[in-house]
Design goal:
With 167 residues, the chain is mainly β. Strands 1, 2, 3, 4, 5, 6, 7, 8, 9, 10, 11 and 12 form a twelve-stranded antiparallel β-sheet that branches.
Length: 167
């Protein structure tokens, strides 16, 4: 049972991780790098990546390139013996006046040993920290779309459980 909750936590973590990060950048002029870092912690496991490529710079609408996050091209890594991969290129829109961002869909697969779970979360809202390009998630639930019967039907990520940093 403990193994199952780790997988569900990690899968939610990864879903949120696809949206997360760490260093502050001024909100005024758009950053020039077109990169994003992500972090998410669920059920005591942390998933992170750095320097995922984006199609544009905030506040312009953009997509995140999953091949630059997933291994072998990226460096997505999770603790707790879990592996994860992003199945889509999430699209982000930004509302600078409100200090928010929105993601249309996150589709992620988490695996531990021989157990694989795929989850999707839609319409995730992120709150910007001050004038930076660091965004912190509002609570969301990802629904199982396929995988082992040992995978929970859904997993939740609390507010603040994930961050995304565009730089």
């Amino acid at each position: 049972m403990k193994r199952t909750s780790r997988i569900s936590g990690t899968t939610a973590l990864v879903a949120a991780a696809l949206l997360c990060g760490g260093t502050a950048v001024a909100a005024g002029p758009a950053p020039t790098a077109g990169l994003v870092d992500g972090v998410i912690v669920v059920a005591g496991n942390t998933c992170t990546w750095t320097n995922g490529r984006t199609s544009a710079n905030p506040p312009s609408a953009l997509t995140v390139d999953r091949t630059s996050i997933n291994r072998p091209g990226g460096n997505l890594a999770c603790g707790g013996g879990i592996t994860a991969s992003l199945n889509n290129n999430p699209a982000f829109t930004f509302d600078d006046a409100a200090g928010t961002a929105r993601t249309d869909l996150i589709d992620i697969t988490g695996q531990q040993s021989f157990i694989s779970c795929r989850y999707k979360a839609t319409n995730i809202t992120w709150n910007r920290e001050g004038t930076s390009r660091k965004y912190v998630n509002q609570a969301f639930t990802a629904t199982k779309s396929s995988g082992s019967f040992l995978c929970p039907g859904s997993v939740s990520t609390p507010a603040g459980g994930a961050t995304m940093l565009f730089h």
